[in-house]
Specification:
- There is one protein chain.
- The chain is about 0% helix and about 50% strand.
- The chain is mainly β.
- It has one domain: YVTN repeat-like/Quinoprotein amine dehydrogenase (Methylamine Dehydrogenase, Chain H).
- The chain has a four-stranded antiparallel sheet with strand order 3-2-1-28, with no helix packed on it. The protein has a four-stranded antiparallel sheet with strand order 4-5-6-7, with no helix packed on it.
Length: about 350
Amino acid sequence: MLCVVRLIAVPFTLFAAAFAGVACSSGPPSEEASTEPVLLISQKASKSIGWYTLDGELLAEAAVSDHPHEIVLSPDGQRLYVTDNGVMQIEFAGEGGNKVSIVDVPGRKKVGEVDLGQWRRPHGIGLCSDGTLLATSESPDQLLVIDTAQQKIVRTFDTGGETPHIVHCSEDSTQAYVSNARSRTVARVDLETGERELLETGDRPEGSCLSPDYSTLYVAHRDADKIVAIDTADWSILGEIATPGEPVRCGVSGDGKMIAYGLFAGQGVGFADLSTMTEVGRVSTVGPTVSLEMAADGETALACAQDQDTCYMLSIAQRSITNTIHVNAGSGPDPLLLLQP
């Protein structure tokens, strides 16, 4: 039996880093787990990361400190970094947690953590190509720059807004893009100087995603029912996609032609053509969709309905659900990744 260590689900993008640490383990993963595709799911309610087969069989769990939210995977697929937010939802009150958990993905166990000290309720997390780890904190509001080798914060920056939510790194690792959920702004922050530029984009900017060439940042605005496209070079608004149903997370296809997005109030997943900036289809889910990640193949979207303990694999080309995964009751799945052997 596998030792329980809580983990989170991360986008299929891989990012490099190495860590040392001690954690319990019941032995190596099974041969089946290493030769078949596996879903790595952030289980927010059960405070863990779960490894599942595509049929919904739980293979292993790894416990994290408290209510994990976002995750990011190292480029070599060895380490998963998890923000242990400490509360279930952004709207909930509470001091929250102050840790980023480090999970050994092949070993299926937690092997370390970064103590964030005064910076509590970590939420967004991203890994730059140079190995720098970025995280946002909601209390107090801040962008944290973390050295993964030292496992500590090395710089902190003000994002110029309230409740920094999701963060991405520029292709050259010099800039961070942060959505300020309660301030109607998106910030571009220089990771050396802390200098920032703000764009007012609309009510409640939450999830975001980058085009494959990093030239465009797409930001889902939950309360404004739209996705805003931002030119990352000159930091200007390129256009908007109307998306009724409270879009919360998004992902761009590998060819850069389509965007998929999770709809919270709409209880589904929408698809839009980026050449026309218009919605071209949507499918229904069993409840509010809280996550949307793009798999490494650039053709498969991954989403979860947290309160219904149900996750989905979706075809971008067909704009349809290809697989429905029922995870353990009470796990509260949020982001998930598809790990290919």
